[in-house]
Amino acid sequence: MWNMLENYVDSLNPSSLARYIEKTKLIDGADPYRIMKDQWSTDDKDLPDITYPDIVNYLVTTESSYTLEDLKDYRSLQSYNYFVSGWVSDVMHCTINDRSIIIAKVQRSLNVKAAPFLPWIITESNGVIRAAHCNCITGLGETCSHVGAILFTVEAVVKVRQMASVVDESAYWLMSHNVQKIEFSKVQDINFESTETLKRKKNQNVTISPFPTVKSSNKVKVLEVAPPTEQEMAKFFRELHESNAKSAILSLIPEYCHFYGPCYLNGPLPKLLCDLYDENWTKMSKYELFDYCKKIMLSFAVTAEQADAIEKETRDHDSSKQWLIFRTGLITDSKLRAVYSDDIGQPSIYLLKSICYPKKVKPKQTNCYCNHLKLAHALYTETMKSQHQDFVIYKCGLIINPSWPFLTALPDYLTSCRCCGEGTLQLKCLCCNKPDELIDPSAVDNCFIKTENGQILLRQDHPIYYQIQAQVNISRKAYADIVVITSQFTHVERNQSNTRFWEIIIKKVIDYFRYIILPELTSKFYTRSNSKLAITDDQNKDFTGEEALLS
């Protein structure tokens, strides 16, 4: 059981190792973590007689080898919490040099699924505690709460053992049951008594008294109440609903549960693409599935009212539960270049999964709002307010255009002013993701191009340009501003809609949505193990971009 820590000593720093060796000299230099299993005993009768004064003497008045001052250890109560909660298990002991070594498992308090801590103590036969250690972070101080938990456990065992000898029968049922695994429980089965109450009851159980216990005759009378009738329960639920309290119990009552459904099931929101999957479609042939997806493509539509509702629901996308739901199956502006460059005959599974099964990305993974972006936002806002009339900047949610309901844009902000109208703003930081030492700004991440007159512009084949064009066209705003930050300079550029560029892009995107995304959403066509697809030119001819736009 202790083999997991046989190399524990090798991980100690020099000062901790010196103290560890000093403690083990009490038991002829034996390392408790390396003592063979057959040398340990689980017989409680051989445990040393540790009493409460011994615990107090060790935890409070023993000098620490590190601080050389009295240990004002107020965590003894936490130690007792571990004991009464049953977090101490597998107590074992052995004797070396007439001294007892006690070791046990103590469950972790912050991570119950992790391996428990393994503290040990060295005591004299009369119960005097000579040394202790634990493999937790604070165990080097020799008085951690895990060490205290073992001490309280042994002390209780001693009391129970003495009680058993007095009444001439076993009293070990008074001990706390060891918690081997923490399971989910019904509320009615959970003991909500405070630790202080449990401690008081435990002390009463293990305290020996020569006098019989006098039980109080003041019993609490339990009133017998008839169960409510169906009419009374219906009235109660109706009044609870009318109070607008949003009580959780009403979500289980058929008459009121629909008030607690996700907001996208109510109101002016379109059918979700994530609900298209049907196991029956997996039995279709490739051509039958494509014909079925063609019908979905022609009928798939989002009204202007529905688009506005989605935008409002996803404004706070960091905490919005609907954020990933509405994104599922839609081609976002940031993936437009990847979709346009992908081979429809053999599509990228990684790209497809990122569209059909989006995951919430942690800020640490993207560094999406670093200090550079905060500064860029502040400077952009200050500059625009000084140069434009009634300039306003505000956050937005997913933007969907009814003309292309399979696309969505998410600019960082929307802007407006009296002189220029409404626009979008996208902030990009390249220096945090890819530090560069380049002096020539036109070479920075292949993002920019320098014109003959020395002007620096975004390259039209760069993913950022695709993203900006998607934002300005999908949102139908007058312009799209982009602020790109590098380690050498900050580039600010305003773009209007490039109509010719957008017409070329949209034709490829329509085909990708029909032949790649819809088959995956309806039947997991590409991610199934036996899936193979090769789209021919003939299959592309039966469905044109104009047909989808007219739907």
Automatic annotation (TrEMBL):
Offer one example of a GO biological process linked to this entry.
DNA repair
**Entry-linked Gene3D superfamilies:** 3.90.320.10
- Which superkingdom heads the taxonomic lineage of this protein's source? Eukaryota
Signal peptide stretch? none
Q: Which PANTHER family match?
A: ATP-DEPENDENT DNA HELICASE, SWIM-TYPE DOMAIN-CONTAINING PROTEIN
* Name of the protein this chain belongs to: SWIM-type domain-containing protein
Instruction: State the organism named in the record.
Output: Trichoplax adhaerens (Trichoplax reptans)
